[in-house]
Design brief:
Helix content is about 15%, strand content about 15%. It is of the alpha/beta class. The longest helix has 14 residues.
Length: about 575
């Protein structure tokens, strides 16, 4: 869909740098929203959370949300009020431990994944990885016999009667060691930890028959292909992580884990189905899984999972139990949610049942039809009109929509937090939406709207805005892309004061485009690209801003006049 950038200018990294600075501030103990209580009880409380990290080897990396989910699974006391969620409380305590030097930021991964809040890398906050500060940890290592980290398959020193939390910090475990694990009758935590792929290929079928108190099980980065059905006997289990394994199936007995909170399946590329019993996991809060890349259809009756906060996607079906209405009660969903196969929504009432306005924690929403032709265009317009999200959304994508017009809600300035918008392959729409009054929009990509013939003032402001006191359109837009606009002939004008923050403008694959307006008023414009606009006749150097640093023109054979600033043709 969106091409990889050939090179991203340093100025366009400003948002990334701001996020990096904020996280560096967090680690230097000057983050304003962190309040550190100095009383003894608070210090003991934080040490109790940090003690859990004595299970981690010195080079082990973890992300903030991963550790918080582990704390929650162990039932560690974190909430200070009934109003805050366990996750919010855990993040607050994690930030405090960072500020006090217990955790150190080790690296940041800016790659965009299936669950990224932003699809545009420069606006993504990235995934920060942390390590435990070994100096701080050395003070705590001898303070509790409940915690034991086994190195090189050695359980020497671990007490079978008192050890409750056990980790293995190596790449392989022999059958003898696995056979010893059930002797730890009070075991609550079992973590197999490695930053590399382990050679462990199987879990003994009888391992779970005697672990009656196990709440946390981490088997990630092993080579297991399945889990024994006996895992369903571990009723206290709250956290199960088999991410980045070649696992091919999960047993139906998982549905019996009736207090499971976190199920991590990220990177399980051979897993193409989830158990039919998933609907029984009514306490599940986090399903970490690339649903789009791996599932053909959703497990039925997910509406029962009312505590769910993490669900990367929902595949709409017309079958009962898999319709879009299954989202109705999932009002704690946060992060990114992609809703696919919207052509399977049967009616406007069906769409309204999803109740998207009530999902106020969502930050990114993708509304995705298939590329197949949909006959009832009017119905698709009603459906999209009924899928209005909450006003605090950060990113919106609409893809393969077959209606002839976009909904009125798209133009509402009440979307005061919307930063990124993508309109992709909305082929039947002949008018651009009036979205110039979105106050925080920074990135706008419009691709393959092949019936649009002109860019005019209705794109910048609605009819009401034209009548009322004029306001600058797109006040914070930094990047504007038009791509594969096969009928676009003219961009009429840009009013003085509009697009005051625009840094980069891209026009590509607009074969009918003849004229462009004057861009001389765009005082922040630095990078401009015009490609494959075969009928474009002129680009007057006097109509370009003095701020322009790079002009790229390619495959525009009719262009007779163009700026003499740096560029090529």
């Amino acid at each position: 869909m969106r091409k990889e950038a050939e090179s991203v200018p340093s100025e366009l990294h400003s948002s990334i740098e701001k996020v990096q600075e904020e996280n560096e501030i967090e680690t230097r103990n000057v983050k304003e929203n962190v309040v550190i209580e100095e009383d003894k009880s608070s210090a003991e409380h934080l040490q109790g959370l940090f003690l859990y990290c004595s299970l981690f080897p010195e080079d082990f990396e973890f992300r903030k949300h991963e550790l918080v989910q582990l704390w929650i699974a162990e039932g560690l006391d974190m909430k200070e009020s009934e109003q805050e969620t366990m996750e919010d409380a855990g993040i607050k305590h994690f930030n405090t431990l960072v500020s006090q030097g217990y955790f150190m930021c080790s690296r940041c991964d800016f790659k965009v994944g299936f669950d990224s809040v932003f699809s545009v890398p420069m606006y993504s906050p990235g995934n920060f990885f942390y390590k435990v500060n070994p100096v701080k940890l050395s003070v705590l290592e001898t303070k509790s016999s409940d915690y034991f980290m086994a190195v090189n398959s050695k359980l020497d020193g671990a007490s079978e009667s008192t050890t409750q939390h056990l980790s293995f910090a190596y790449d392989d475990i022999d059958d003898m060691t696995f056979g010893a694990i059930p002797k730890f009758k009070n075991l609550r935590t079992l973590l197999l930890l490695s930053n590399r792929v382990s050679s462990i290929k199987r879990i003994p079928a009888d391992l779970f028959l005697s672990l009656n108190f196990l709440t946390t099980l981490k088997l990630s980065r092993t080579l297991i292909s399945g889990l024994p059905g006996s895992v369903g006997n571990v009723k206290p289990l709250r956290y199960l992580d088999v991410s980045y394994t070649p696992i091919r199936w999960l047993p139906e007995s998982i549905g019996g884990l009736n207090i499971l909170q976190t199920l991590k399946l990220r990177g399980c590329i051979h897993l193409s189905d989830l158990p039919r019993s998933m609907h029984r996991l009514t306490t599940l809060r986090h399903l970490d899984f690339d649903i789009i890349g791996q599932l053909d259809f959703m497990p039925a009756h997910l509406r029962n999972l009312t505590d769910l906060q993490t669900l990367s996607a929902f595949l709409v079906d017309q079958e009962d139990g898999r319709r879009i209405g299954e989202l109705k009660n999932l009002n704690d969903l946060g992060g990114a949610l992609r809703i696919l196969r919207l052509e399977n929504v049967l009616s406007k009432a069906d769409a309204e049942e999803a109740d998207l306005p009530s999902k106020k924690c969502l930050q990114r929403l993708d509304l995705h039809w298939t590329s197949l032709v949909v006959e009832n265009i009017k119905l698709q317009e009603e459906i999209l009109g009924s899928l209005r999200p909450h006003a605090g959304l950060r990113e919106l994508q609409i893809l393969f929509y077959n209606g002839t017009k976009l909904p009125a809600w798209l133009s509402s300035p009440s979307f005061s937090g919307l930063v990124v918008m993508t309109l992709f392959n909305c082929e039947n729409c002949d008018l651009l939406p009036s979205i110039g009054q979105l106050p925080e929009l920074k990135f706008l990509s419009i691709v393959q709207m092949n019936k649009v013939k002109e860019i005019n003032q209705t794109f910048f402001r609605s009819t009401d805005d034209l009548i009322d006191k004029p306001v600058n359109a797109f006040p914070k837009l930094e990047i504007l892309e038009f791509d594969i606009m096969l009928s676009l002939k003219e961009w009429k004008n840009v009013k003085e004061g509009d697009l005051p923050s625009l840094i980069k403008l891209s026009m590509e694959s607009c074969p009918e485009l003849v004229t462009l307006p004057s861009f001389s008023s765009l005082k922040c414009l630095k990078y401009m690209e015009v490609r494959q606009c075969q009928k474009l006749m002129s680009l007057d150097r006097n109509e370009l801003p003095t701020s322009l640093e790079s002009l790229i023109i390619r495959d525009c054979p009719e262009l007779k006049e163009w700026s003499d600033k740096e560029g090529d043709q």
